[in-house]
Amino acid sequence: MAGMTGRLCSLIIAALTATSAAAAPTGRLAYLKGGAAWVESTPGQAARQVPESRGAVLLALSPTDGALAFLTGPQGTNIHAEKVPPLRPWLSRPPYTKSVLLNSLVPGPTFTTVRARWMTWDGHALIVGTDGENAGWNLVKRKTFLPSQSALYQSTSRNGEVTATLGSVQSPDDVGVLLYGPGGRPGTEVFTRRLPENLLGTLKTAPQPAIRRFLADIDPRAQADDVSWTVTSPRVTRDGRQVYFASNAGYGVGSAGTTTSAIFAVDVREVRLRVLGWMGTFEGSVLDVVPSPDGGKLLILLARHDSNAHVNTYAYVADLGRKTMRELIVGSAPKGTLTVLNSSCWLADSRHVALSVAYPRPEALTRVNDFTPPPGAHALVVKESASGRAVSRVAGATGVACGPQ
């Protein structure tokens, strides 16, 4: 009996150990801290400072091979200032022991410096946005190019066959969602403000009371005006099968961008639009709807203005299979503080979310600091999407980016 009990205990311990290991976060993580770029091969493990990254202000990890692209500038550079100084683009490949200037990898006409405010990096093309023309480097073809001004508002599947962007066939400035890919070549309008029937049709067939109330509150006169509409950048899943976005369907926009929105999904092959009515509606300003790497969950970012001095950012995780939702950051805020999200991303395992968040008191945010907490006030927290439990924390980290396992 004693031997059997011992074996049973060993099996239980082994099972618990396996469960713990399975729950551990996996996937590369990069962030800015102390004026440099850092990379963790797995959240919670020892971080490596990336060579030549002193002065880094923007970074992105390739979802394909984990290569880190980053931009460096003079000390004190603020990419949100009225004028951005020239920034130098770099690339560092795993294991991040060496960094090289991007113009040494891409021959011919190139951008040695850029006054960038944002960047995207899909492992093939690196794009940065400036106040003038955007700049791009194709690392596969080893060429520079001038991306469209709508590059920030579009996404592409991992194989590059499906792209979704804001706009219409006539103009990228139109209200609407445009799809390129299987079922949508050479470009299909999912909906536009001028032709909203697809969007309204899926709302009319939704059985949920919250969606019915939302639809009943839309004023057709307001809906006819572009300024009454909000649409988040459409996000393509990595497998290219679905596209997700939020829209207020012309509900109207109040002070500080306050409105009411619903979450929509597009079946790419059939170009079929549907509303995810089980989520209800979101009051405030939906900032982004980001699918997890496996396409099974959504990270929904929302800003809510309770008053001019009280603006909180919410981060909801929606499990599309189980049809459950959980808020990750506002519920953790100390009493009397605001929730300010700097950046966020899905880890490669699709089970954890990385969030750089600060909890300042309202009186600490003034015009002097542009109503923004200093970088040191933030903390990078990795949380389980299902439970909301924090599994890793890095004080003073911002600009978080996630990469492959």
Automatic annotation (TrEMBL):
<feature type="signal peptide">
    <location>
        <begin position="1"/>
        <end position="23"/>
    </location>
</feature>
<keyword id="KW-0732">Signal</keyword>
<protein>
    <recommendedName>
        <fullName>S9 family peptidase</fullName>
    </recommendedName>
</protein>
<dbReference type="InterPro" id="IPR011042">
    <property type="entry name" value="6-blade_b-propeller_TolB-like"/>
</dbReference>
